[in-house]
Write a structure and sequence with these properties.
The protein is of the alpha+beta class. It is built from eleven helices and 22 strands.
């Protein structure tokens, strides 16, 4: 296979296996040609992308580019199944809203009403906080990264995901006060949905969403060993070649939806229909939430809420393994944009907004108030400090254990450097910042703790999406 330069974060592009589109009278052929041009760099010796656009209820573009499988030279087509990553969350969210519509739960319910295994954090964590990522729950994948086995390095099951969430004795922040994206929120929502409905997530979504909406090619990756006819294989680029990058975990709900561009266009029609959720909960689905102090977080029930060229944007991106996805709805133009890719270097958000901009010319009369930027709260910032002489490194040596991630760390000094070992072949350095605080470039921030006599008794480690995970020093 020939080497390929990675250009997709800049050009948002690829080439060429296609089906015809249905022309729309109001849309010029020039604009459709511009769509073709966006994907022109894709060729049939690399992974690719499927893209679909509908406007005013009609599909005007549905094409696929590149290969679904490089080993067997199988092309992507508009019928190819891709994994949608976190686009999957809106299906779980819609399920919770449907149960609320039926009176089987309310969004203000404490999640512990349905999941008593979750620790009592002193303040209720509501279902709506889970929907909007304002609960403070630590992300299950970030927690497992502390064991030395981050996602994509071993098989994780639904039960393992739930188990590590249940072990957490603290939250990233008080419930409702901040926004921090965490897949644990939707792991909890899946459990609530299944316990309240008496159905598995797959059974529930098939009965209430996939069948009524004729989404015939949509299913869940709840068994990574299952054979899925028509599914694209995912890849990543490295040193000018392509390597397999398939998810081999069984967690689903926060991600794990297998689908096609056509099925996601059908799903997006729910934004114009009240047939399943009704007016109240269809509206609730896309209303940006606020923190307890009134800050708009730009996130609703499985959707990011913002603007593009002055037009309201209801969207979500997805990324699992080498799969990339983008699903967007622009209500003022009745415009849907779908991107599904099996190439990790593809930039779906950049590309999706470039496509949408072809249809969303600047129009002052169409503008809506811009939502607040949806940024993950920085709940554990370390201020820049001047260099200082570090404490005696031997103070920190020893063996530490965390019950919350069931992992043992060995801290030692080698050649004047503090090092941490987790398992065979897994060792990293800690760099001193200030006082008893250290950092590792790829393994988080460490704050050691001392007793009244000044002896180090443990530390807390923070990584993105999981703050202050405690480790205790073992007696030695």
């Amino acid at each position: 296979m020939r080497k390929t330069t990675v250009l997709f974060f800049v050009t948002c592009a690829l080439a060429v296996q296609a089906l015809p589109w249905l022309p729309l009278q109001a849309q010029t052929l020039d604009t459709l040609a511009e769509l073709d041009a966006i994907f022109a760099p894709f060729h049939n010796q690399m992974p690719g992308v499927a893209v679909a656009v509908s406007i005013d209820g009609r599909v005007i573009y549905n094409r696929a580019y590149g290969l679904a499988n490089l080993e067997y030279n199988v092309p992507n087509t508009p019928q190819t199944l891709f994994e949608a990553g976190s686009v999957s969350k809106q299906f779980v969210a819609a399920g919770i809203l449907l149960l609320a519509k039926e009176g089987k739960l309310t969004l203000h319910d404490d999640v512990r009403t349905y999941v008593p295994e979750l620790p009592d954090y002193g303040t209720p964590v509501t279902l709506d906080m889970l929907l909007s990522h304002t609960s403070g729950l630590k992300d299950w994948g970030a927690l497992y990264s502390l064991t030395g086995w981050p996602r994509t390095t071993r098989v994780y099951t639904q039960e393992l995901g739930w188990d590590i969430i249940f072990k957490q004795k603290s939250l990233n922040f008080p419930p409702g006060t901040l926004y921090s994206y965490s897949n644990s929120n939707y792991m909890m929502l899946v459990l609530v949905l299944e316990r309240v409905s008496g159905l598995t997530l797959a059974q529930f979504t098939e009965k209430y969403f996939f069948e009524p909406l004729n989404m015939e090619h949509t299913l869940w990756r709840d068994n990574h060993l299952a054979v899925v006819p028509g599914r694209a294989t995912a890849y990543r680029g490295q040193d000018g070649r392509f390597l397999l990058n398939m998810p081999f975990e069984d967690l689903h709900g926060p991600g794990g939806l297998l689908t096609t561009t056509s099925d996601l266009l059908r799903w997006n029609r729910l934004h114009e229909s009240l047939e399943i959720l009704g007016e109240e909960f269809a509206t609730n689905r896309i209303i940006a939430r606020k923190t307890t102090n009134g800050q708009d977080i730009g996130y609703a029930a499985g959707h990011t809420i913002g603007t593009l060229n002055g037009y309201r944007e209801v969207a979500h991106s997805g990324s699992t393994g080498g799969y990339r996805a983008w699903l967007a709805w622009y209500p003022q133009k009745r415009l849907s944009v779908v991107l599904l890719s099996n190439y990790a270097e593809f930039a779906p958000v950049v590309c999706g907004r470039r496509i949408a901009s072809l249809f969303l010319e600047e129009d002052a009369s169409a503008k809506v108030p811009a939502a607040a930027e949806s940024q993950q709260a920085s709940v554990h910032q370390v201020a820049e400090v001047h260099a200082e002489t570090p404490p005696e490194l031997s103070d920190y040596t020893g063996t530490y254990y965390s019950t919350e991630v069931d992992t043992r760390y060995v801290v030692l000094v080698e050649e004047g450097t503090l090092k941490v070992g987790r398992k065979a072949g897994d060792e990293f350095e800690l760099s001193h910042r200030t006082g008893d605080r250290f950092t590792s470039e790829n393994n988080g921030e460490y704050t050691f703790e001392r007793d009244r006599r000044g002896k180090v008794t443990g530390f807390k480690v923070s990584v993105m999406r999981a703050q202050d995970v405690p480790f205790y020093r073992l007696i030695h």
